[in-house]
Amino acid sequence: MSEYRYILDKSSKKHHCPNCVRDFFHSINFRKGRVSAVSATGRKLAVIIWNMVVKGTPYINPEGYHFLDQKRKLGIAKRIQKQIDKFALINSDLNFISN
Predict the structure, then answer these.
(1) Which of 1, 18, 7, 6 minimizes the C-alpha distance to 51?
(2) Alpha-carbon distances, residue 35 vs 30, 54, 65 (angstroms)
(3) Cα distance between residue 66 and residue 80, in whole Å
(4) Which residues contact 52 (CB under 8 A, 6 or more apart)?
(5) Per-residue pLDDT averaged across 16-37, rounded?
(6) Of 13-17, 19-23, 41-45, 83-87, the least confident
(7) Which of 55, 44, 52, 65 is nearest to 7 (CA)?
(8) Which of 4, 9, 12, 32 could covalently link to 36 via disulfide, CB atoms 3.0 to 4.6 Å apart?
């Protein structure tokens, strides 16, 4: 039992995000209600802990939790960057006209 506690303590100190689980809970709570939010958050924590214990991987939350509009913006930016790379465009090729 103490080795699991050590893994949890070690990973939580290294990559601790105090608001990410709370933000996830609040977003689900707003959309689907408290019962669903408690269940979804519990499952999320169970999956995180299972991966840490069984696979030995630390919890890493690189992007944090994004709302749907933020995810769309990131997806659009990624798609535009892929198209720029695909067509090998440079800054001089992109002539923006601003008023």
Answers:
(1) 7
(2) 11, 28, 20
(3) 20
(4) 7, 8, 11, 58, 59
(5) 82
(6) 13-17
(7) 52
(8) 32
The predicted pLDDT at position 14 comes to 44
The DSSP-derived string for 49-85 is HHIIIII-PPP--SS----HHHHHHHHHHHHHHHHHH
Is residue 74 a contact partner of residue 58, using CB atoms and an 8 Å limit?
Answer: no
- Give the pair of three-digit tokens for residue 79: 């798609």
Q: Read off the amino acid at residue 87.
A: F
CB 53 within 8 A of CB 98: no
**Amino acid code (one letter) for 60:** I
Two tokens, residue 35: 């019962």
pTM of the model: 0.47
Coil, helix or strand at residue 7: helix
pLDDT at position 51 over 80: yes
**Token output for 78:** 């990624």
The mean pLDDT of the chain is 78
